[in-house]
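The authors assume throughout that readers already know how a fold can be written as discrete tokens. In essence, backbone conformation is discretised, so a fold becomes a row of integers matching the chain in length. A single example would do more here than another paragraph of explanation. For illustration, here is how one protein appears when written out as sequence plus structure tokens:

…
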Amino acid sequence: MILENLYLDNYKLSVVPPELGELKTLKLLVVDYNMLVSVPAFQVNFASKRELRASLASEFE
């Protein structure tokens, strides 16, 4: 099985595990509506044709 899309919305995450950046087949990571305080550092390592959707906690206050 190849993981291409991962939806982790509404899990009350404060950080995104950096290990997710190692998933070479991942094309879409959605982490909206969590408690994130910053955008994951591995976003810059995403190859072309990869997408990250994230909302910061301050956007919901």
Summary: Strands lie at 5-7, 28-31, 51-54. The chain is about 0% helix and 20% strand. The radius of gyration is 11 Å. The longest strand covers residues 28-31.
